[in-house]
Amino acid sequence: MKSKSGNQFFTRRDSVLAVIDVQERLIKVMNNRDKLIANLVKLVKFAKIIDLPVIITEQENLGPTIKEITSEISNFEPIKKIEFSACKCSQFAEKLSKLSRKNIILAGIEAHICITRTALDLLANYNVSVVSDAVTSRTPENRDIALQRMIQSGVMVTSTEMIIYELLEKAGTAEFKETLGLVK
Predict the structure, then answer these.
(1) What pLDDT shows up at residue 6?
(2) Rounded to whole angstroms, how far apart are CA atoms 157 and 57?
(3) CA–CA separation, 49 and 20 (whole Å)
(4) What is the reported pTM?
(5) Is the pLDDT of residue 94 over 90?
(6) How many separate domains does the chain show?
(7) Domain containing 52: what range?
(8) Given this model, what pLDDT does residue 8 score?
(9) What is the CA 31 to chain-centroid distance, rounded?
């Protein structure tokens, strides 16, 4: 069942977190960057807790991924790209294919460029959810327009806390207790 129906929940067994282009040169000019960074770090830390695969991309010539993210990922190996859509980068497409998971959770920057292009391309083969409080652009208007366009195209929009609890599925576990430290 495609996410376009709005009836599908993502699970840890069938999902991947893709963090797009959160790089030093670009982050400096982003709207609401402190909230963005905090939510991205929560997502990456949570991915470690539940053993969710994480794919990181870097747009060439924009510097490395920010340290707040790289410090949370062991054996950090970003996928370098020049394309706006990560799907047009063969390394990204190959990595997704090898993971054999049908749900992609997108976060990063810029919402109206690389996030939108990637999300719309992913819809051809995957269910896609964009984490609204973990994406941004230089202007809030561009971010808002991007989210509207993605929703109109069939991308599900979620929030950091919403996707965390969706993937967690239940309380009372060691993972739940560890996650509480991230969301409180």
Answers:
(1) 53
(2) 20
(3) 21
(4) 0.94
(5) yes
(6) 1
(7) 3-183
(8) 79
(9) 17
Retrieve residue 98's tokens: 């090898």
Q: What is the pLDDT of residues 30-74, one digit of tens each?
A: 999 999 999 999 999 999 999 999 999 999 999 999 999 999 998
Give how far Cα 8 sits from Cα of 3, 4, 55, 104, 166, Å. Answer: 6, 9, 22, 13, 11
Cα angle 3, 89, 8; round to 5: 10
Cβ atoms of 117 and 85 closer than 8 Å: yes
DSSP string, the chain: --GGGS-PPP-TTSEEEEEE--BHHHHTT-TTHHHHHHHHHHHHHHHHHHT--EEEEEETTS-PBPHHHHTTSTT--PEEE-SSSGGGSHHHHHHHHHHT-SEEEEEEE-IIIIIHHHHHHHTTTSEEEEEEEEEE-SSHHHHHHHHHHHHHHT-EEE-HHHHHHHHH--SSSHHHHHHHHHH-
Would you say 86 and 18 are in contact if contact means Cβ atoms under 8 Å apart?
Answer: yes
CATH of the domain at 76: 3.40.50.850
Half-sphere exposure of 63 (CA within 13 A, CB side): 11
- The band of 76, judged by pLDDT with boundaries at 50, 70 and 90, is very high
